[in-house]
Amino acid sequence: PAQQPANNGAPGAPITFQVYPGHSVTIQYDPSETDRGPLIGSYTRDYIIWDGFIIVETDQNNHQDTGPIVIFGESYDSAQNVTLKNLDVRGLQATVSPPGENHNSIRIEQADYATIENNKIHGIRGEFHNHAAIMTYFSHNITIQKNEIYNSYTGIYIKGGPAEIESEFIVRDNLIHDINIGIRTS
Length: 186
What we know:
By secondary structure, this protein is mostly beta strands. It has strands at about 15-20, 25, 40-45, 50, 55, 70, 80-85, 90, 105-110, 115, 120, 130-135, 140-145, 150, 155-160, 170, 175, 180-185. It is globular, with a radius of gyration of 15 Å.
């Protein structure tokens, strides 16, 4: 991600990025920026919290197999205990030039113990089910709760993962509307 911590947090002492109460902070690429990929997240970092930001994706910066927010590890013991909360995630809302394959607002891949809660996630339209507001892939022990998800092709897509690793996914109390597929698993 363009913005991510250089270090890991620790149990009881996470690294927290939080908007000052009563203020609004928007994170997006500068219009002249040509880099592609996620804006915020956690790549192989543990015990990270992102709280209260507006995340705006731009058309020139979208990239397949990612999205404006990623929690991504290189194995199941990296990217642990990451929380995304109180975010307003605004996707491309593309209709003429949809994003590439597997484009998501929030992508969680090879992560463990992530919590996605109390967010507003909208605007990942695309053309089929792999364009999801939230997609998990080869991840474990994920909680997705109290989010409002709308104006996307798929709301929540829990996808892939080896059967030999025990996983728990908790998906509860989400408001999902104005989309093609609410919740999909494979």
